[in-house]
Amino acid sequence: MTQPWDAGRATDEIRSIARNPKLSITYKLHARERLSERGLIISDVLHALRFGNVHRAPAPATRPGHFRYQIECRTPNSGSRSIGIVVVPAKDECLLTIVTVMWLDEFERVAGSIIGATDDG
User: In which domain of life is the source organism classified (predicted)?
Assistant: First the structure.
């Protein structure tokens, strides 16, 4: 990928990758820590990737030609709260790299943007 996708296409592409039987997911350490901290599980991430929506513009990823997208969704384990997942898709590899997972209601109260977080670690 060399050009970022708009929100609608990003939603469709991420959902398509997430539903592909060849899907491979990697989790950055930060994402694994946030999942544990928030009491969320892998199936919550999969649900959000398969059924969520991208509403925000992407940010460049550290991997050249790739971009970070935030996909948002309520999940079976999140109660009435929505989660946001910052993900770097690699369509040709059928790979989704999870950078972080957040509660959107907490994110909206904090200055700054997690989508700007580095996806290196």
Answer: Bacteria
94-115: b or e for each residue (b if 16 or more CB lie within 10 Å)?
Answer: bbbbbbbbbbbeebeeeeeebb
Fold of the 7-113 domain = YaeB-like fold (3.30.2310)
Residue range 64-96, pLDDT digits in tens: 999 999 999 998 888 888 999 999 999 999 999
- Judged against a pLDDT cut of 70, whether residue 1 lies above it is answered with no
Predicted structure pTM score: 0.85
